[in-house]
Amino acid sequence: MLFLLVSAVSALVIIPNHPYSAVKEDESWTVVPGRHASSAAVAYYNRSCNETGWNTLTVITNANMTDKEQAYGAGFAEGVVSQLDIWNSWLNYANGTVYPASEQLISFITEQDKFVRLMVQENTAHAYWKHVGLTLDQFDGMFAGYAKVAPEDQQLSYTDSLLYMLNYEVSDIEIALSLQNQRESGEDASGLPLSARARAMLATKDDDWPNPGLSGHCSVLIKPSSDGQRLYAAHDMWWTYTAMLRTYKHYELNYNEHYTLAHSVSFSSYPGNLCSGDDFYITGQRLVVMETTNNVMNASLYANVTTDTVPYWIRIGVANRMSDSGPEWMKHFSMYNSGTYNNQWMVLDTKLFTPGQPLPANTLWVAEQIPGYFVNHDQTDYVTKHGYWSSYNVPFYPFIYNISLYPQYLAKYGDDYSWSECARAKIFRRDQGGVSDMDDMRRIMRYNEYQTDPLSQHDAGKAISARGDLNVPWLSQPYVPYGAFGGIDSKITEASMVHDRRAIAVSGPTWDAQPVFAWNEQWSQVPHFGHPTVFDFDYVETKPYDPSS
Q1: Domain CATH number, residue 101
Q2: Per residue in 58-70, is it b (16+ CB within 10 Å) or e — as a string?
Q3: What is the rounded average pLDDT of the residues 195-222?
Q4: Can you give the pTM of this predicted structure?
Q5: From CA 5, how far away is CA 479, in angstroms rounded?
Q6: Do residues 16 and 116 share a domain?
Q7: Nearest 5 degrees, angle CA 178-CA 180-CA 185?
Q8: Rounded Cα–Cα distance for residues 283 and 498 (Å)
Q9: Is residue 395 part of a domain?
């Protein structure tokens, strides 16, 4: 599919998988067709979401340029070639979430941005802050490139761009600000425009705690085959269907900074995002990095959400580049914990896997983050003992589980708040033993037979891949309420595929045993700019584009 980018300063016809070079001339940046020796970065973009469910992007930087030029050029090229999809994705975000943001939220993210940039300026010899700075350079380049080609009515302010990059973290920031307002004003929580989760936190007695609903999302399965010859890792993203404008990205950032241990990374993502958000990454150090989101119901923890921290979207890129093992990744990611987008993180080091041999120590590290705390340990022995690891939005570590107040909610609202007895825990435990090959992984990660599976209790959200659109509006206490929300993809890789960063991925809600989702009838008014109309896609292989092919 060809598409035209036109602005007052440039006009480019973007041809699928053709090279577009970011070039700096006299302090001014531009993107030109073809590969150029003087380019800082080259982007290959294929706007193929209508055919496969995924756009694809490969960005390769020039090691002969400075690291700062490489980072800025990588972002600039991406911003230019994917401008239209960034705009459509922004429209979906702005229509469905926080925009226009409150002055208090804007003040918070502005102060945090100033803190991070000041730390970069003051710590020029520190490898961690060098990599934070390179991530900011890539961010600045992306939205400069976007601005260069975007029509006047599609321009985004710096605050717009920052809000968009923070979209996974905004809800936690808003909760922290709401709780701060309540503490300072002394007003009763019921008089404030709070989310259900914030309102529950402010209740003064156990009996008053309303069920905030589980805002977490995602399913993960890590599974060695029964014969020990293969090691699988899979992730389903649960999110609003408005986010189903997808881009699978491959970055080769050839920085010269000494502590750049992984120059390349491939990940499922969205237009204009430097992070995955799902999250699902395969790094050049053969680490598979995934997460599922946990809830934090303890109001006191949100006092740790401050502006003197580094946002998740920056920390994740830094940790992926600076790490060659699970323990190293944990060390780097935990630094300057923002307490936002609080997840269980899994880092699978496939370098350590030898087919047919027992899993060695440090193969799987698992961490859980909440505001003020980061707990992480080697869980390889768990996989060896039980034959798998699964993750489904309930904390594993007792400290995180208890301090987040899960026991109180378990006592009041039941097994949805139980690590061992919630629906997906029991489904994974029951079915993982039948997984022996890639086809089995494909099936289990798209599993949803809520009408007949007794573990689902007739709730389309109590499945490995949820379908909130299939629930009925009158269902009492649904795990996923009726609406355009659920599992929106599945990504699977295997140890033998990781060395060249390959995976298979499918976009859209599961339709293995359910109707295909389409943007029609009751869903036609939900924002879905740039989306395919019907999501009847199958798995496709994802891998970096090879310019020599």
Answers
A1: 1.10.439.20
A2: bbbbbeebebbbb
A3: 65
A4: 0.95
A5: 43
A6: yes
A7: 95
A8: 8
A9: no
